[in-house]
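Readers of this paper often ask what the protein records in our data store actually look like. Such a record has a labelled line for the sequence and another for the backbone structure tokens. The tokens are whole numbers drawn from a learned vocabulary of local backbone shapes. We quote a single record here, exactly as it is kept in our systems:
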Amino acid sequence: MLPVKLIQNLLSQNKIDALLISNFYNILYLSDFKSLSPNEREAWVLLTKENQYLFTDARYFNQIKKDKQSKFNYKKLTYEKNLLNHLREIIDKEKISILGFEADDLRVMELNQLKKNLNSVKWQETEKLIIKLREIKKRKEIEKIKKACQIGDWCLKEIIKLIKPGVSEKEIVFKIEFWLKEKGYELAFSPIVAVDKNSSLPHYNPQEGEGLVKKIP
């Protein structure tokens, strides 16, 4: 069963009529839509019991309209017609009484604004509905994970050859990023490169340090 349908089936179990999704990665998982920045609110998804909507602005709208296979109803966000306007119309049309939201993602200020302007519905917090679904990997996802691991191993074998005394952590990070991007791959996150005492820090940020390779074992 498709992820969208699975979530729609969960709405009744969670006693909600619809779910407003704000998390960048959950939106990507459900709709295959990817905006530029994970840290900005460039898109929203609304799942009702019968329909699925994706809201974004003009920068992406022409791009997503080309996706003829998608079953999402695309709604353009403009200055004249923002997210609140669209939600109000859908709430009235589909007679939504209880609207769920991602409590572990939506900001307090955003929630207060939604409640203030859409007071005809009861707002119900949900937690990790989609993340729990994402934990169960499909065959294609497993294949992609395996391929990513192979690419990572290949990259490290090549980069190790370039590590020598005097090379900084930042230089190694650059070489890794360049190697991957030159071959057309994307980075899941910025590489963590830590030398000597810095290697004791699991989430060390090489952009903030000045570590240098002193010797090769």
Summary: The mean pLDDT is 91. The helical segments are 3-13, 24-31, 58-64, 83-94, 108-117, 129-134, 139-160, 169-182.
